[in-house]
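Structure (tokenized):
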């Protein structure tokens, strides 16, 4: 996994790692087949899902998408 700046502030004190932590449980359910959402076929699907499900901030955060793409091998 390449080095990501997890401490980078994205929005009003929220760092990259805070957004990752807020999405981690739901994404783990998706990949454990405990969700109605099917695993992501590509990064575009993952990006769209992350933006929609992030708390407060609905813009693209490249580090968040890259973290999950690498973790779950999404191309």
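Design, position by position:
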């Amino acid at each position: 996994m390449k080095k990501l700046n997890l401490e980078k502030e994205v929005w009003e004190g929220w760092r990259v790692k805070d957004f990752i932590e807020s999405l981690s449980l739901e994404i783990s359910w998706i990949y454990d087949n405990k969700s109605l959402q099917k695993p992501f076929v590509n990064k575009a699907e993952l990006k769209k899902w992350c933006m929609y499900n992030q708390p407060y901030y609905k813009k693209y955060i490249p580090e968040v998408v890259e973290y999950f793409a690498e973790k779950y091998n999404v191309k």
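Reviewer-requested clarification: The chain has one domain: 12-71. The chain has a mean pLDDT of 96.
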